């Protein structure tokens, strides 16, 4: 029997694993029953990257969420109807904590009535069998796999299976989700699911998709490793009409989106964590006219400042790039000081938008992949060993060391050590004398002279 807890420990990031263990401990203080469910379990089984963590709670989920420290949140949203929290932590972990529930739909496309339910009922109410798998995080059953709809077998056979005949009618956004999962995971819809999918397209169930559901699906798209492939698949089925009819006709800016994804992947490989939501949406709607773009954003629930932050991304990038195009900002120190306050998301977008402006691109690229990483290589341990106590002087030495490296003055370890010793006030070691005290200097023995050859008589 597989050890699913060991699999989680091996596959989750350190930050995700730490959060999972903390939630386990908090669950016992109330107590509530806690389960890892949905996409995280599916991605664990398929070997895909685990983007976010989804938890289901049997019990008082609101009280459970209150135990978390709000100072750790980058953003927090609570939906009272579903008793669900969407949390973006400061360390980059995305997490949802929801009530284990059943959903009763009275009309197509309308929000369902929600009632608390045991975890197995919660899993059975979901859209596809591959998303109806859970792992218990409770002391008596920790690591137990819950698979009431045989979703694991469907994953192994690469099959996408709808759980309920009226699933597309009750929640039409599942039509988009089917295409997204099929494209990302390379799955094949089983015959009944394919028939229901074609029927949903024919009957135009997608006309009933709410703005909130469309926003949620578009947000999920922005987190995909290959949003271009999913957008093309949606367009192939006529599904971009859900967001705007002109988007279906003209299509997104696939070329620009592809460039952004290339630089985004480079940034992720370098350890940067950021939300690609704004840049991806920008390229999705870039070929639309201004009025059409704002209509699309309204169709996914974005208005006011939320909409302006997407439309105005180009202007923000131009403000970043303007001082970089001249001759005043050329030195690494100047480039670092100018770009350090700028969000990583905007820098990666600027890198993409000005890909033809080599001077601008080179400066942004060097900042992200050469200058900024030096901040992670500060000699904290070495300075501690030199006896410098943490405080203003300690921080000042690290700052001066960083800028000296940035200026190219400390190119090897010997120079770095001398620089640290000087700032820390460590005296230079005395030079070693050539002869030790009390010992006579040894001289090499004199060469023996060869005897002269005697002349023969």
What would you note in describing this structure?
There is one protein chain. The protein contains 23 helices and 11 strands. It is α+β, with helices and mostly antiparallel strands and 457 residues long. A hairpin with a 4-residue loop joins β3 and β4.
Outline of the structure:
It is built from 23 helices and 11 strands.
Name its key features.
disordered C terminus, single chain, globular, 457 residues, 23 helices, seven-stranded mixed sheet, Beta Polymerase, domain 2, alpha+beta, two-stranded antiparallel ribbon
Anisotropy-based shape: globular
CATH class of the domain at 1-157: Alpha Beta
What is the CA–CA distance across the termini?
106 Å
CATH topology of the domain at 1-157: Beta Polymerase, domain 2
Average predicted confidence as pLDDT:
91
* Beta-strand segment tally: 11
List the helices and strands and how they pair.
Elements: H1 4-11, H2 14-29, E1 33-37, H3 39-46, E2 52-58, H4 61-66, E3 73-79, E4 84-89, E5 94-99, E6 101-104, E7 113-116, H5 119-124, E8 134-136, E9 145-146, H6 151-156, E10 159-160, H7 167-170, H8 173-185, E11 188-189, H9 191-202, H10 211-222, H11 227-236, H12 245-250, H13 254-269, H14 277-284, H15 290-299, H16 304-311, H17 313-321, H18 332-339, H19 344-353, H20 358-371, H21 380-385, H22 392-406, H23 413-424
Helix pairs in contact: 8-10, 8-11, 13-14, 13-19, 17-19, 18-20, 19-20
């Amino acid at each position: 029997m597989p050890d699913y807890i060991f699999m989680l420990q091996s596959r989750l990031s350190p930050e995700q694993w730490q959060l999972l263990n903390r939630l386990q401990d908090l669950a016992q203080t109330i107590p509530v029953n806690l389960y890892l469910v949905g996409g995280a379990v599916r991605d664990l089984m398929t070997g895909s990257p685990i983007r976010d963590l989804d938890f289901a709670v049997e019990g008082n989920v609101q009280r459970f969420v209150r135990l978390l420290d709000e100072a750790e949140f980058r953003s927090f949203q609570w939906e009272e109807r579903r008793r669900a929290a969407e949390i973006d932590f400061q360390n980059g972990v995305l997490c949802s904590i929801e009530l284990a529930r059943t959903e009763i739909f009275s009309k197509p496309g309308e929000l369902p009535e929600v009632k608390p339910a045991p975890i197995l009922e919660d899993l059975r109410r979901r859209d596809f069998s591959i998303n109806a798998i859970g792992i218990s995080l409770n002391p008596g059953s920790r690591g137990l796999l819950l698979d009431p709809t045989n979703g694991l077998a469907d994953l192994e056979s690469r099959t996408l299976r709808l759980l309920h005949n009226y699933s597309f009618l009750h929640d039409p956004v599942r039509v988009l989700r089917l295409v997204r999962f099929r494209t990302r995971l390379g799955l094949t819809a089983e015959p009944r699911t394919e028939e229901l999918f074609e029927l949903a397209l024919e009957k135009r169930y997608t006309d009933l998709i709410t703005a909130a559901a469309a926003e949620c699906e578009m947000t999920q798209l922005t987190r995909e490793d290959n949003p271009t492939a999913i957008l093309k698949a949606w367009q192939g089925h006529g599904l971009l009409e859900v967001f705007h009819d002109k988007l279906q006709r003209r299509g997104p800016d696939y070329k620009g989106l592809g460039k952004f994804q290339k630089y985004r992947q480079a940034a992720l490989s370098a350890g940067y964590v950021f939300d690609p939501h704004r840049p991806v949406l920008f390229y999705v709607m870039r070929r639309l006219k201004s009025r059409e773009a704002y209509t699309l954003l309204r169709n996914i629930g974005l208005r006011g400042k939320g909409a302006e932050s997407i439309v105005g991304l180009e202007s923000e990038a131009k403000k970043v790039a303007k001082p970089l195009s001249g001759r005043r900002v050329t030195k690494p120190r100047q480039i670092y000081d100018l770009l350090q306050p700028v969000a990583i998301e905007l820098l990666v977008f600027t890198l993409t938008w000005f890909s033809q402006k080599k001077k601008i691109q080179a400066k942004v690229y060097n900042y992200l992949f050469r200058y900024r990483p030096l901040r992670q290589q500060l000699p904290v341990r070495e300075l501690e060993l030199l006896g410098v106590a943490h405080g203003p002087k300690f921080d000042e030495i690290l700052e001066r060391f960083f800028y000296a490296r940035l200026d190219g003055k400390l190119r090897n370890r010997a120079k770095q050590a001398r620089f640290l010793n000087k700032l820390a006030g460590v005296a230079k070691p005395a030079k070693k004398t050539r002869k030790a005290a009390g010992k006579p200097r040894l001289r090499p023995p004199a060469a023996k002279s060869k005897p002269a050859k005697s002349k023969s008589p």
